[in-house]
Amino acid sequence: MTPVFRFQGIYTPVVTPYADDFSVDWDALAEVIEYLVENGVHGLISGGSTGENYAQTVDERLELARFTHHRLKGRLPLVVGTGAMLTPDSIALAHGARQIGADAILLASPPYSVPTDRENALNALAIDKAADLPVMLYNYPHRTGTMMGAEFLDRVGRSRNFCGIKESSGDINRVHMLARDYPHIKLGCGMDDQALEFFAWGAPFWVCGGSNFLPREHVALYEACVLKGDFAKGRRIMSALMPLMRVLEQGGKFIQTIKHGVSMNGIPAGAVRPPLKGLNKDDKRALEQVTRVLKRKIADIMAEG
């Protein structure tokens, strides 16, 4: 089955900058979008969890997607997240994505309800019908409580719209299974510390929060492994990135760390909405140190040609 869309490259799940009163800072969001376009990422995701979708209303999420689409002006593909606890909310987001002119949707399992594979597939197909756009699935069982298993994949795979999956289970056996058994649903990296392994198994895209503030470094790994097949160079770049992965994933401060990284680039990303709280001084210092070192190391690797 030929997919209707090919997800390729680095897709950035865009942060949502906030003002002091937690309203959206639209000027800062425009800066983030321009920075990402100028620094070579291949697509943007509006309304992902890195954008704090769980702390936003459906109307807010659609307004953010509409703004991002307007600012992009077709320069990069736009994927709109549809993840929500309520199926009607996901359908509203999917329908809105189509009206906005999005290129694709991101579709996760509904959290907390823990549907069976059959129930989850029927839910996904209803969302697909509302959007009738290419779909990037998002398998993240640690957050949703639900694994997108074989029955789910077999059912949704009958629709040509399901043409990619961001795999975030952390189970390397899932990478093997998806690459072998579901080649028509293109494998995408959703576990940053396994990016090299995903690329070795033929994944053509990587959804990475860290690319919000280190886009060139993430693109460098993709280009080395996917475009050039130079895994020796890729291992060196990945080795330089690994300390960042540890800072991002340890301590439950992923989004706060990403937003501080954006602020380090001179774009005011602002605070995170409750219930989350910002980083302390030690957390900030650790990120700043790791970022300085990895940027220097990767620049040296790239300078070697």
UniProtKB/TrEMBL annotation:
One of its GO terms (cellular component) is cytosol. The keyword Nucleotide-binding does not apply. Pyruvate binds at T50, V207. Signal peptide: none annotated. Gene3D superfamilies: Aldolase class I. Keywords: Lyase, Schiff base. It comes from the Bacteria. One of its GO terms (molecular function) is 4-hydroxy-tetrahydrodipicolinate synthase activity. InterPro entries: Aldolase_TIM (IPR013785), DapA-like (IPR002220), Schiff_base-form_aldolases_CS (IPR020624). The active site is at Y138, K166. Belongs to the DapA family. This is 4-hydroxy-tetrahydrodipicolinate synthase.
